[in-house]
Write a structure and sequence with these properties.
The protein is mainly alpha-helical.
């Protein structure tokens, strides 16, 4: 009987440990805490872009996109906190596609600061192989989708067949090579609304 009671007490204490699992919080120093280690040119470039600290929507700097960093900057955890920070890319070390999309849509589903909400979930690009950073760049002075040549190059990365085969609508005076793909194609349009 004493061993059953002891086992029961161990199970209860384990449940309490799991229940009291600490969640990361935002750091007190925000971006300054991140720049202690992450200070390269690419990292600092985001500050001059729309997602930098000049953005009136930014409250926690880097942590607005990458998540609360208290575990990550903790010496006790050596930068390997759980849950891990949101990492944007398609390589093996990046966060899941859904975590990346969720991080972007945490701000971009609302209209704020003159920016219209972005419809992504349910769009033609809402596929397992596409996340926001597939097309958009954040750690730059400007988003590559804003520049005609860069946007076209980015779109052709997946739609290479359209480079040679895109219909030119003969008899018009439209100079297709001077247009962005987004001039005609609403890539964030819901599939249910038609293409």
């Amino acid at each position: 009987m004493p061993s059953v009671c002891l086992m029961f007490a161990v199970v209860i204490s384990m449940a309490q440990v799991v229940e009291s699992k600490r969640e990361p919080i935002y750091t007190d120093k925000g971006t300054k805490a991140c720049l202690v280690c992450h200070s390269g040119e690419k990292i600092r470039t985001v500050q001059t872009g729309v997602h930098g600290e000049i953005n009136p929507m930014a409250k926690h700097g880097c942590e607005d996109c990458h998540g609360p960093g208290s575990f990550h900057v903790s010496r006790a955890h050596g930068g390997k906190g759980f849950p891990s920070m949101v990492l944007f890319s398609r390589d093996a070390n990046s966060s899941s596609r859904d975590d990346q999309v969720r991080a972007c849509l945490s701000c971009h589903t609302q209209e704020a600061g003159g920016i219209k909400p972005v419809v992504f979930l349910g769009s033609a690009h809402d596929t397992p192989l596409v996340s926001c950073p597939t097309c958009h760049s954040i750690h730059t002075d400007s988003d590559r989708m804003a520049d005609q040549a860069q946007q076209t190059t980015t779109c052709y990365g997946c739609h290479s067949d359209k480079k040679a085969e895109h219909p030119r609508f003969k008899g018009t005076t439209i100079t297709f090579d001077d247009l962005k793909c987004s001039t005609c194609h609403n890539v964030h349009k819901l599939v249910a609304d038609g293409q």
